[in-house]
Amino acid sequence: VVPFHGHHQAGVTSSPGAFVTYLSLTLRETTDAEALRRWLRVLTDDAARLTQGGRALADLEPELVARPAGLTVTFGFGRALVERAGATAPAWLEPLPAFSIDRLEDRYSGADLLLIVHGDDQTVVTHTARMLLRDSRSFATLKWRQTGFRRAHGTDPSGTTFRNPFGQLDGTTNAKLGTADFDATVWARPDAPAWLAGGTGFVLRRIEMDMDGWDKVGRDGRGNVIGRHVDTGAPLTGGTEHSEPDFDATTRLGFPVINDVAHIRRARETDPANSIVRMAFAYDDAVDPGAVPGDDGLEVISNTGLLFGSWQADVTAQFVPMQARLAEADFLNTWTTPVGSTVVAVPPGCVEGGFIGEGLFA
Ligand code: HEM
Predict the structure, then answer these.
(1) Of ligand 1's atoms, which has the minimum distance to the CA of residue 276?
(2) Which of 113, 289, 317, 343 is the most exposed place for a label (fewest CB within 10 A)?
């Protein structure tokens, strides 16, 4: 059981579960500030009960969550919701600027309210998502739902880095919970609106991975794309997974050991205040009807990629410059395509009897 109440929302301060369901809700025209407050109260009550293995109001199947298996529910607000409440949104709460690599689709992008439900058991996650949607009906409509997964709980020793669908260890260089770097990267700064204190910003990018294209890349090539060995995750300049890469090292012929456009060289940001904390899940969905074969003419058999999430205090100052650098040059772009993009403000947690987002109405 992950405690629900607290200064921060529990989904930001707990490690990602094995399964995630993202729900994007669009406010109904009729949902005014007073209705919005009621809705957030109801959803908070649901989340507070379900995450503790309890029964949501009028839940006829409470047995489904009796063992919550690390369940958390995290709320993220889009600009429309903040403004509907009559509050001021942070300047960065906008769709990201367009990047040349983007092929964004509306069916995967944007949210007035984003609910992030993750935990180690799909039955619990599914029931929770249904309860939250059921109680949202009169206030909002479901725009999209995206689901993802990581290794099943217990499969790897705790603390093992996640492997993404390309087989890469993904999340090695990521500030750990409870460290000063994590805090400096994630929590809203003093210049943020008061209702966001103790909260953060969240970006969700749905990034398609070209599995067939990747099949054509050998093991060494794969290492060069990232700048790390695929098996151990160690930098190409040696050591083990958590050794520091040496970006100045050159081969005997004078070429950089870590390619100029290797993903880790282009993504690197050493100042925590300009960095992001990543939370990736894989997705593997049914192939879209009508998916068109690539140049090789092979039938399309994968609709696979990353639900790339990142926490940062200020999306414009932290996420955007990094993504812009990667859009300009990153070896990985050959095999990856962003197809969805959502930015939300994640308010702080609440105490018992309070509700998530109450600061909006102060
Ligand atoms: C499908 C898309 C992506 C894949 C497969 C991917 C994969 C990886 C891998 C394998 C690593 C090395 C291990 C690690 O430190 O985690 C890495 C590092 C990193 N990635 Fe990505 N990544 C993707 C997209 C992105 C995006 C969109 C961003 C940010 C806008 C990003 C930012 C970073 C950062 C900051 C690092 C750490 C770099 C360092 O300091 O060593 N990645 N990624």
Answers:
(1) 35
(2) 289
At residue 131, what are phi and psi to the nearest 5 degrees? -60, -45
- Give residue 323's pLDDT band: very low, low, confident or very high (50, 70, 90): very high
Positive or negative: CA dihedral 118, 111, 334, 238 = negative
Sign, Cα dihedral of 285, 169, 224, 247: positive
- The token pair at 256 is 């950089």
CB proximity list for 271: less than 8 A, separation 6 or greater: none
**H-helix segments, the chain:** 10-13, 33-51, 79-84, 122-134, 180-186, 211-215, 219-226, 263-267, 315-328
Contact assessment for residue 195 and residue 362, using Cβ atoms and an 8 Å cutoff: yes
Q: How far apart are CA 133 and CA 23, in angstroms?
A: 8
To the nearest whole number, what is the mean pLDDT of the chain?
Answer: 97
Q: Whose CA is nearest to atom 34 of ligand 1?
A: 267
Hunting for tokens 């503790």 — which residue is that? 52
Note whether 22 and 108 are within 8 A (CB): no
Using one digit for the tens of pLDDT, what is the confidence trace for 116-156? 999 999 999 999 999 999 999 999 999 999 999 999 999 99
Query: So which residues are the catalytic ones?
Result: 170
Q: What secondary structure does DSSP assign to 88-155, as a single string?
A: PPPTT-SPPPP-TT----GGG---SEEEEEEES-HHHHHHHHHHHHHTTTTTEEEEEEEEEE-SPTTS
C-alpha 5/C-alpha 128 separation (Å) is: 17
